[in-house]
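$ run holo --ligand "calcium ion" --emit tokens
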Amino acid sequence: MKDPLQTAVEMALASGRIQKDSLKENFAIHHKGEIDLLTDVDIACQEMIISVIKERFPEDDIIAEEKANLFEGDRNRWIVDPIDGTTNYAHGYPFFCTSIAYEVNGVMVIGVVYSPIMDELFVAVRGAGAYLNGNRIRVSSVQRLKASLLSTGFPYDITTNPDNNINHFIDFLYEAQAVRRDGSAALNLAYVACGRFDGFWEIHLNPWDLAAGALIVEEAGGSLSSISGGTFSVYGGGVIASNGLIQEAMTGVIGKGPSGRSQRIP
Ligand code: IPD
Ligand code: CA
Ligand code: CA
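-- output --
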């Protein structure tokens, strides 16, 4: 009997090894869009992960970022981002990870996020808690937005789509203690889960960015909602994730819509 948890962890660690080893070498960088990059290392990690899944779980579906979506019904589903933080990876900025989630009958049951440079493995199993390198983690206990460190990210069509999160970013700069933008949604969620960030939001994300990290937040005692404050779904695009204590305040800032502060900035 193959164990999906063990498999997810093995694949994430192996993917991290490929990423670390390949950083020392020259790898090719391609463009999916003007600022949307794809490296040969994304492809190598994804191919390795898919071959392991196909060998051990041939009946399962796979959603993986680099165009390898294998749907054949309502079977169990792996949701994979081989490198979350590809722009960082391409520049040698050490904030990137592999994100792997496992969904059974529509319920996310396993989430694994591995950051190879920090050698940090975040794991959650539904109903069994969230762990960082084997130690149980919990969200922070910060109660006020003014005392909160938040993070966010921006879509690749930032210059052509007016719904690009810049207004919300400016509003949170005024409302929070500080806001970071460091280029990996899955790691940002894992950092909310272990209390380094108090909250994270982003408006246009894909299931492979969200699936593992969202379960890790949930199992660490955090809260998740859609960007409008409704029920969260990894297939819904956006997310507000927090320690729960600042969730309403975050939803309020986004719900107010653009405050006009951006217009007042010279
Ligand atoms: C991106 C990262 C980034 C987020 C983007 C994502 P990628 O994923 O998670 O932090 O702001 O929206 O697309 O392209 O590095 O896998
Ligand atoms: Ca991603
Ligand atoms: Ca990616």
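-- notes --
The chain has a mean pLDDT of 93.
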